[in-house]
Amino acid sequence: xxxxxxxxxxxxxxxxxxxALVVAGLVAAISLPVGLFPQVSFPRxxxxxxxxxxxxxxTALSVTRPxxxxxxxxxxxxxxxxxxxxxxxxxxxxxxxxxxxxxxxLLVDSAITQxxxxxxxxxxxxxxxxxxxxxxxxxxALTSDTVPQTALYDLARLQIVPLLASVPGxxxxxVQSSAVAExxxxx
Length: 187
Prior knowledge:
alpha+beta; 5 helices
């Protein structure tokens, strides 16, 4: 009985406090920033390496391994993962949260530049920070039981990409394939 009596006695105070909390919640909800991609600085840098048409084992030995070793010298590296394919490699480097990723990206770029002269001629690289805007929004896969994969690659690159690239507001269209036509010169 004393609890109900206390509620009756303070009903107007409780109502005012509840209304104040509702108003404060509405003001906070209206004033919060809203964005499609919030400002997030992922502690990851990705390096894409291209070294011509070398076989996978040769690319791993002469390109991927030296670049990984150079990257490991950058302060704050937590983990280095790589995937090597014919003539190319992609290396993902994870750092701790809270790092200045612009400066860290420059350090990774500098470390690779220092070993670039020791890599096979024609090797190029691209270093980029990971953020929400670099992830693909949509991906399509072309398959066929009758058309060769190399022809599908050419179809995607020469016909589909130009059509998609003309769509307003589309930032980038890329084609990925392991089946690229090769030409070998006769000796």
